[in-house]
């Protein structure tokens, strides 16, 4: 499975307590400290992603078009989600909220449009083009 599909499976399933749908299924909420432990801390065949580093995981989210929402973002409307967020917040945790228009609980068909962005490779300002010859 590619990154967005793995993420979808995690958020939809009940195997992990550190990641869930927030804001009516339009955002992903990640309880950072627990996520590092229960997801990124896995090794061997139980490993979910190719990294065990939170910064690398967040880079993957950004590469697939997810944007971080501000801390004062409107929280979940459903009671179970709200209570989970409050419990996590009261435990002095850091909850991260990420949004992607193609990652929506109500529209799983949009997941196929969630693709890795391809950035232009940077080159030094004085560097010649690849096709140029001295």
From TrEMBL:
Gene3D superfamilies: Winged helix-like DNA-binding domain superfamily/Winged helix DNA-binding domain. Residues 3-117 form the HSF-type DNA-binding domain. Pfam families: HSF_DNA-bind. It is found in: Nucleus. Keywords: DNA-binding, Nucleus, Stress response, Transcription, Transcription regulation. The keyword Nucleus applies. Its main location: nucleus. GO terms for molecular function: DNA-binding transcription factor activity; sequence-specific DNA binding. GO terms for cellular component: nucleus. SMART domains: HSF. Belongs to the HSF family. This is Heat shock transcription factor, Y-linked. It comes from Cariama cristata. The lineage of its organism: Eukaryota, Metazoa, Chordata, Craniata, Vertebrata.
């Amino acid at each position: 499975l590619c990154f967005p599909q793995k993420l979808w499976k995690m958020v939809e399933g009940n195997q992990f307590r550190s990641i869930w749908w927030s804001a009516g299924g339009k955002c992903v909420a990640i309880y950072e400290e627990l996520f590092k432990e229960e997801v990124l801390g896995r090794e061997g065949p139980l490993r979910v992603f190719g990294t065990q580093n939170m910064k690398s995981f967040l880079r993957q989210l950004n590469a697939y078009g997810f944007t971080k929402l501000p801390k004062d973002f409107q929280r979940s409307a459903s009671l179970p989600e709200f209570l989970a967020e409050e419990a996590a917040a009261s435990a002095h945790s850091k909850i991260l909220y990420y949004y992607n228009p193609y990652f929506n609980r109500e529209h799983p068909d949009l997941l196929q449009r969630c693709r890795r962005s391809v950035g232009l490779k940077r080159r030094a300002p004085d560097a010649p083009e690849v096709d140029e010859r001295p």
